[in-house]
Design brief:
Layout: H1 3-17, H2 21-35, H3 44-58, H4 62-79, H5 84-100, H6 104-118, H7 125-140, H8 144-162, H9 167-182, H10 186-204, H11 209-224, H12 228-242, H13 254-266, H14 270-287, H15 292-308, H16 312-330, H17 335-350, H18 354-371, H19 376-392, H20 396-414, H21 419-434, H22 438-456, H23 461-476, H24 480-498, H25 503-518, H26 522-540, H27 545-560, H28 564-581, H29 587-602, H30 606-623, H31 629-644, H32 648-666, H33 671-686, H34 690-706, H35 713-728, H36 732-762
Helix pairs in contact: 1-2, 2-3, 3-4, 4-5, 5-6, 6-7, 7-8, 7-9, 8-9, 9-10, 10-11, 11-12, 11-13, 12-13, 13-14, 14-15, 15-16, 16-17, 17-18, 17-19, 18-19, 19-20, 20-21, 21-22, 22-23, 23-24, 24-25, 25-26, 25-27, 26-27, 27-28, 28-29, 29-30, 30-31, 31-32, 32-33, 33-34, 33-35, 34-35, 35-36
Length: about 775
């Protein structure tokens, strides 16, 4: 035996013992030079190759190590095939190198060879380790069932050979738990992680990376199972350990810290999340020396945390910095840049900077649409944000265009029977509703409802919401029979979901009451109203705001039938309840005062009517701007009462104010403006100011026509008022024309109502 080789080996072993890998490498290289002089088949040659390879592995020189292990294997296959233990050792070393270098298939081939050699032997740690390695190889290839089989065999074998309290056993448990975790089998992963911690912590200490890894994984399982209390407990334990480790030794803990951040966010602990993110950023920048691009992802998380704490200016600054970094590195048209723009747009939207949000979101959408790399889901997300921005700004034409584009893309990506596709159609229907395109709104809401039922079933909350929206649209269209059908469908859905006596059923019964009342079916309306009252009394007790709602509805029903005393009785009961529970300044109180004013007006008790409307006005004036719809409605009623009391100048002044406010807020050609003008014309008429009434009546009718108002009773009243004024002015021919037009509309409405009633009865 060469004494030089032996001396080199001994010195290399000493150097390796002291961790002097560079010196050990030099010595083993010299030993290899010596081994090349030996005769073929000398056992020292593969031994030298393997030892040098191991030293190189310690220095992460895996490619050179790979070549040396291959030489060693070639030699052992040729000369030492029957030295099984040494052959297995070489095969094991080489497949580990292949695994590290990503040569998974080659690694698996060698691992299977090892398994075939040792499988017939009795159970051993070597066999268990081989099965474990094979499990890892299958795992990284996505062959999870194969991996699970190998992990389970390895675990059982290690338990049998080594006992429960062993680190190798814990290793198998951890790998199997991670596999279950990845597969969403959280209930199976949880006890394995718990047992793994139980074994590792006494043997390694709480601060060991393997213990921390298991604790972090367990906490993440709790978090993903929405067991936030359990997750918080484990994370607090974990944080206690981490906090004792210097930041310079914490890089491997960053993934756990990120999971901890997510848990804090789920709990609404955004301040704690912020502090942790800042710590992550310090580790990434100072210890890991992460690139600017890598840091930008943590900065993005920081911006979100700041935003959730309403630290909007700081969040905006951070997110703009992220955008600048990504534009510089990736280019201004990169999809990641677009995603950053989308987040920045959301922040500006949150802070009511809608114009800025719009321009940024438009840019993000354009980038994503041009990209063409199959990122349709990101395009969809951006279009949704843009739609929200447009609708908030009441840019309905732009919203319509975006929603049509969104629907086409969702239909292509998901098909028509997808929930999101239906949602886009429903949003489009809402846009048409805001544009007063009610027929189109109802058509699209019906389509959305049909698709939503197909996607999620009949009893989902989304379906219930769409049925409600469609019913309201049909009411606005005057299709009360169709509206009734839909409200009855919704009542059935609520009963199936919540039971017969749920308060939601009472809400629907209110709508049924109103529609039956409009159709003149007072008996059915009363049955619905009283059933709603009984449900609310059962659910909330005798004294509750919801009970007051029912009393108001019953009062409305009696009022429509001309039963004014009964109406007042119910409204006064409701008012007493509202004053006691809600207080004297509540909007519901104002509404009931307004109703009582209307009843007193009908009874020609104008003083009481004035007193009630003044109380309603005082509440609403304190709550709303002068152009608020509720206050304007109050003005309208006030005008009628003032006119009845012959306080014409006050009525005229108030009416002018209403016309001005409605024109300013709604535009000169809005249907509501025409109603206000007609009221002003009537006040002129009552004062005998027919020359002033005539142009105002004329303008009211023109505005009504331009606004495409329905040819209903309001237009009939305008035409007849105009006719009377023309007669007073001696314009009999024009007056007759107006009266003829009014009569034609009234006759048509009567015919339609009769036909509708007949159709409902037949149905």
């Amino acid at each position: 035996m060469s004494s030089r080789w032996s001396h080199l080996k001994a010195d290399a072993d000493v150097a390796l013992q002291y961790g002097s890998y560079g010196e050990a490498e030099m010595l083993w290289r010299r030993a290899l030079e010596e081994a090349h002089t030996f005769e073929k088949g000398d056992s020292r040659f593969p031994l030298t190759c393997e030892n040098l390879a191991r030293v190189l592995c310690h220095q992460d020189k895996y490619q050179e190590a790979e070549l040396l292990f291959e030489k060693a294997l070639q030699c052992r296959d040729e000369y030492f095939r029957f030295e099984v233990d040494q052959l297995v050792e070489t095969l094991s070393n080489l497949y580990e190198i292949y695994f590290k270098l990503g040569k998974v298939e080659q690694a698996e081939e060698l691992c299977l060879r090892v398994l075939s050699i040792i499988e017939d032997r009795e159970e051993s740690e070597r066999l268990a380790s081989c099965l474990f390695d094979l499990g890892n190889l299958c795992h990284v290839q996505g062959r999870l069932l194969d991996a699970e089989e190998h992990y389970l065999r390895s675990l059982v074998m290690r338990q049998n050979c080594l006992g429960e309290e062993n680190l190798s056993v814990a290793e198998s448990m951890y790998a199997l738990a991670a596999l279950y975790d990845e597969s969403g089998r959280l209930t199976e992963s949880e006890p394995l992680y718990e047992k793994c911690i139980e074994v590792r912590e006494p043997l390694l200490g709480a601060s060991h990376p393997d213990v921390i890894a298991a604790m972090g994984s367990l906490a993440n399982v709790y978090k993903n199972s929405n067991r936030l209390v359990d997750a918080k407990f484990v994370y607090e334990r974990l944080w206690y350990v981490i906090d004792k480790i210097p930041e310079s030794r914490q890089p491997h803990l960053v993934p756990h810290m990120i999971n901890m951040c997510e848990m804090y966010e789920m709990q609404g602990l955004h301040g704690e999340a912020e502090q942790l993110i800042r710590r992550i950023l310090r580790i990434q920048s100072e210890t890991l020396k992460s690139s600017a691009l890598e840091l930008s992802y943590s900065e993005e998380r920081l911006a979100r945390s700041l935003s959730l704490q309403e630290k909007f200016e700081e969040a905006e600054s951070v997110l703009n910095s992220v955008l600048e970094t990504r534009e510089e590195i990736l280019g201004s048209d990169h999809p990641v840049v677009a995603e950053t723009l989308d987040k920045l747009a959301a922040l500006y939207f949150e802070t009511d900077k809608h114009d800025v949000a719009e321009s940024i979101c438009v840019r993000a959408t354009e980038i994503l649409e041009k990209d063409g790399s199959g990122n349709e889901e990101e395009v969809i997300k951006s279009l949704k944000h843009l739609d929200e921005i447009y609708r908030t700004q009441e840019k309905f034409e732009e919203a319509e265009s975006v929603l049509i584009k969104l629907f086409i893309l969702q239909k292509k990506l998901f098909g028509t029977g997808h929930s999101e596709t239906a949602e886009s159609l429903a949003n489009l229907a809402q846009v048409y509703k805001r544009q007063k395109r009610l027929d189109k709104a109802a058509t699209f809401m019906q389509k959305a409802l049909d698709l939503k039922k197909q996607a999620v079933g009949e009893d989902s909350p989304e379906v219930q919401s769409m049925v409600s929206n469609l019913a309201e649209l049909e009411e606005m269209l005057g299709s009360n029979n169709r509206a009734l059908e839909l409200w009855q469908e919704l009542a059935s859905l609520y009963r199936n979901s919540f039971g017969e006596n749920h308060p939601n059923v009472a809400e629907v019964l209110d709508h049924e009451t109103r529609n039956y009342t409009i159709l003149g079916k007072y008996t059915l309306a009363e049955e619905c109203a009283k059933r709603a009252l009984a449900l609310r009394q059962e659910a909330f007790g005798e004294e509750h705001p919801k009970v007051a709602v029912s009393l108001v509805e019953i009062g409305r029903l009696y009022f429509e039938q001309g039963k004014l005393d009964e109406a007042e009785e119910n409204w006064k009961k409701a008012l007493a309840m509202q004053l006691d529970i809600l207080g004297a300044e509540h909007e519901n109180v104002a509404q009931t005062y307004s109703l009582l004013s209307g009843s007193a007006f009908q009874k020609k008790d104008f003083k009481s009517a004035e007193a009630y409307i003044e109380k309603a006005y005082a509440i609403r004036a304190a709550r709303h701007a002068p152009d608020h719809p509720d206050l304007l409605n109050c003005f309208n009623n006030y005008v009628d009462i003032l006119a009845a009391l012959k306080k014409y100048k006050e009525a005229e002044a108030l009416c002018r104010k209403v016309v001005s406010l409605r024109s300013r807020t709604l535009g000169a050609h809005n249907i509501e403006v025409s109603y206000a003008m007609a009221k002003l014309a009537e006040i002129y008429q009552l004062q005998g100011k027919h020359d002033q009434a005539e142009p105002v009546f004329k303008q009211a009718i023109e505005v009504h026509t331009m606004a495409r108002g329905r040819e209903g009773q309001p237009l009939v009243d305008m035409l007849r008022g105009y006719s009377r004024t023309l007669l007073e002015l001696g314009q009999k021919t024009r007056a007759a024309k107006m009266e003829t037009r009014a009569r034609a509309i009234a006759d048509a409405r009567e015919r339609n109502a009769r036909l509708s009633s007949q159709a409902y009865s037949a149905g």
